[in-house]
Write a structure and sequence with these properties.
single chain, alpha/beta, four-stranded parallel sheet, three-stranded parallel sheet
């Protein structure tokens, strides 16, 4: 049941903040700002030094059980997972979903074993089909900037059951196009944080997050 709940929350969130930073403290602050701006799905990448520390801290702070009110929850996941060992460590630290840059069958099997949603990176119909055969519920289309949103209906022609989340290259300008094309959600990376990193003003992340959520809701007609 927990896996289904997380998948439903990811679908409802619509926007996943993919966060990279130079320290666990910095990435945790980025996450808090994104959540305050309205993004309810956070992906802490394993390229962050001591990323598991940030995942544990944020999971304790924002899980449905820990949140003080319904508006304060967020689902905390882990990204840039290259192998099952890393996936298991992140799950033990509190990650509720796992995202990978590529299709690694052993990582998918590990996540299935513990009933944790896993979203592997895919680029081809063959990779998406393999992911589905391994029991993946959502595939990450990565890098998304190599495609246009029109690729989603093309994929869904032969694979209508595939739930696709483009990541990389998604912006405020094209988010609506991705959602209208059938993306189940979108991953937002450096565009969310680059201005804040450049200026040191992390309130800019909150503002950009709010803009992304507004764009998503408009695209969904909410």
């Amino acid at each position: 049941m927990k896996k289904l709940r997380v998948l439903q929350q990811l679908s409802e969130a619509g926007v996943v903040a993919v966060l990279r930073a130079d320290s666990p403290e910095e990435v945790a602050e980025m996450a808090r700002r994104a959540i305050k701006g309205g993004i309810k799905a956070i992906e802490i990448t394993m390229t962050v030094p001591f990323a598991l520390k940030a995942i544990e801290e944020l999971s304790k702070e924002y899980s449905c059980d820990a949140a003080k009110d319904a508006d304060n929850y967020a689902i905390i996941g882990v990204g840039t997972v290259l192998d099952p060992e890393t996936a298991r460590a992140a799950i033990l630290a509190g990650a509720e979903y796992v995202v990978a840059p590529a299709l690694n069958p052993d990582t998918i099997r590990l996540c299935n074993r513990y009933a944790v949603p896993v979203m592997p990176g895919t680029m081809t119909i063959a990779e998406i089909q393999s992911a589905l055969e391994l029991g993946v519920d959502v595939v990450k289309l990565f890098p998304g900037n190599l495609y246009s949103p029109s690729v989603i209906p093309s994929i869904k022609g032969p694979l209508p059951q595939a739930n696709i989340m483009p990541t990389g290259g998604v912006s405020l300008d094209n988010l609506k196009d991705w959602i209208k094309a059938g993306a189940v959600a979108v991953g937002i990376g450096s565009d969310l944080t680059k201005d804040a990193v450049k200026t040191g003003d992390f309130s800019l992340i909150e503002q950009k997050a709010a803009a992304y959520i507004a764009a998503y809701r408009e695209a969904k007609g909410q």
